[in-house]
Amino acid sequence: MADYFLNIHQLKNYIDGKWIEGKQFIPVINPATGKKIVNVPLSSEETVDYAVSSAKRAQKDWALVPAPKRAEIIYDVGTLLKERKETLARLLTMENGKILEEARGEVQEGIDMAFYMAGEGRRLFGQTTPAELKDKFAMSMRVPVGVVGIITPWNFPIAIATWKAFPAIVAGNAVVWKPATETPMMAYELAKIFEEAGLPPGVFNVVHGSGAVVGQRFVHHPDIRVISFTGSNETGRMIAGECGKQLKKVSLEMGGKNAVIVMDDADLELAADGIIWSAFGTSGQRCTACSRVIVHENVKEKLEERLLEKIATLSIGNGLDETIRVGPIINKASIEKIKSFIEIGKEEGAKLLTGGYELTGEQYKNGHFFAPTLFTNVTANMRIAQEEIFGPVVSIISVKNFTEAIEVNNSVTYGLSSSIFTHDVNQVFRATRDLDTGIVYVNAGTTGAEIHLPFGGTKGTGNGHRDSGIQALDVFTEWRAVYVDYSGKLQRAQLDVE
């Protein structure tokens, strides 16, 4: 894999079925080694305009292709992803840093999404309903919106793109994608796969570049009728405001402050395993990462002991090493943000049990690594318990009972994922009713979504739309009501009386 990009020094944009040279570039850096992998273009607004005009032209013909035929291409894309899973996973680890096991899982999400959405090509169900007049037929149907702009983050560089692109394409739209500049190689690989699968030119386009230029042009371009964005709350709010002015559809997924609730009857060993995976997988750089543990006061100390034991065994390093369990932080800026929250936690009076520092030394030379961190004696209103840190930092909050646990879980501005460990079936059902998140886990951690269920959350996590599941189709289609009157005379609904 080290020689994979030996002959590729600069990535290109993929527009209208052609590979387009860039003019300005920035390097893509492996966060585990600090070494440059490849250069990625910083594209202009004019490049976005070219891509959108190509997509708009291609979409008109693509929408006329029968949906089952559109779906066959997505199925072929899934087959190619499956054949190249290991290669893609290794490339993903190089650019993103997550360990190989997780990278393979992420590619598998893309495979699963392809096969799932291929099935929707023979469904895309509307509804038939009785008409209120004689000799009249009534139905609803899904129709494509047109050109879709998708903007994706670096932490899941292929999975999130497939959640968005595959349903959009099956539904008859054309896509223009701005991947994160930190992780553009998955976009390069996915474009090649679409090309090989026979997708018509212009239906899928990739434009690399900054949010300030490429992302802003996406938002303001009059021919992009849907923006599907995953990223920060601040950027998402800006996108929502600008799209609102244009009456442009927008789907937002903007992070979380997810909690695992551990009741006093829980299997503490299982709970500790779930917390470790949720908190420190992807080095905590997941929107579904566990960053709060809400634990019953009767078992707080026992849970802390188990967590400290397990944290001590975590191996940290280059994700390409199969023995490593925690990879690097994406870049220096993220390290500095995590450090700032460590100081905030100390100043607020939280007790640091372990971690809280950047890893240095020869084995971490040139990379960005942070020690898995555990705070205790945290109160629900502390900043470290309220704000998204996006790193391997967990806050333990003690509660007296189930009711207080629910209140603490719901006290943050986000609402993505939550979890409860308990053997009490009554508490399980109350939790699924009362937790205010879009995803709820029982006796499992806060991460591990399956693509056939809707992914997304409430409050500051998003704006009500969902990625994945059939609900994703709602983002990329409009509903059309159709009435067929075969009476041969003018019938006026609600007015004519027998």
Outline of the structure:
The chain has 498 residues and is α/β, with parallel strands linked by helices.
Question: Into which percentage range does the β-strand content fall?
Answer: 15-25%
Structural class: alpha/beta
The major pleated sheet works out as:
7 strands, mixed
Please tell me what the overall shape is. globular
Counting DSSP E segments of at least 2 residues, the number of strands comes to 21
CATH topology of the largest domain: Aldehyde Dehydrogenase, Chain A, domain 1
Q: What distance lies between the first and last C-alpha atoms, to the nearest angstrom?
A: 76 Å
CATH homology group of the largest domain: Aldehyde Dehydrogenase, Chain A, domain 1
Poorly predicted regions: none
Explain the overall architecture.
Strand 10, helix 8 and strand 11 form a beta-alpha-beta unit. Helices cover 37% and strands 21% of the residues. With 498 residues, it is of the alpha/beta class. The mean pLDDT is 96. It has two domains: 13-254 and 462-481, Aldehyde Dehydrogenase, Chain A, domain 1; 258-442, Aldehyde Dehydrogenase, Chain A, domain 2, CATH 3.40.309. Helix 4 packs parallel to helix 5 and helix 9 (268-280) packs across helix 10 (300-312). The chain has a seven-stranded mixed β-sheet, with helices on both faces. It has a five-stranded parallel β-sheet with strand order 9-8-7-10-11, sandwiched between helices. A three-stranded antiparallel β-sheet has the order 5-6-21. The chain contains 14 helices and 21 strands. It has helices at residues 45-62, 67-83, 85-96, 100-120, 159-170, 185-197, 211-220, 233-246, 268-280, 300-312, 332-348, 402-409, 425-434, 472-476, and strands spanning 13-15, 18-20, 25-29, 36-41, 127-130, 136-144, 147-151, 174-178, 204-206, 224-230, 249-253, 258-262, 290-296, 351-354, 373-376, 393-399, 414-415, 417-421, 439-442, 458-459, 477-485. The chain is globular.
